[in-house]
Amino acid sequence: MRAILTAALLATGLGLATIPAEAKTGGCVRDGAVGAVAGHFVGHGHAVAGAAAGCAVGVHRRHAAERRQQQDQQPQPSQETPAH
After folding, report:
1. How many domains does the chain fold into?
2. For residues 55 and 28, is the Cβ–Cβ distance under 8 A?
3. I need a labelling partner for 41 at 20 to 30 A (CA). Which of 48, 64, 72, 81 fits?
């Protein structure tokens, strides 16, 4: 049974490795790694929970930065009064 499970996990991992991935700055990977390390030091078995929480925080921070960038790119309305 263990051999079948190992083979299935290996096949899944190899299949996922062939899919192209898009990496954006400040997302799940970096903050997830930080969360995993923090969870590891908190106690036994908390590394996965820390990684999940760190990933969620990273995605939220990236989306907030993207929204700010979009707002900065939009033209600002002029404050001048129209001439009559």
Report:
1. 1
2. yes
3. 64
Q: What is the residue-wise DSSP string for 36-67?
A: HHHHHHH-TT-HHHHHHHHHHHHHHHHHHHHH
* Domain of 50, in residue numbers: 26-72
Over residues 18-45, the pLDDT tens digits come to 656 555 566 777 788 888 888 888 877 8
Residue 30 lies in a domain: yes
What span, in angstroms and rounded, lies between the C-alpha atoms of 51 and 70?
28
User: Is residue 15 in some structural domain?
Assistant: no
Q: What is the pTM of this model?
A: 0.54
16 found inside a domain: no
**Contact predicate 39/51, CB 8 Å:** yes
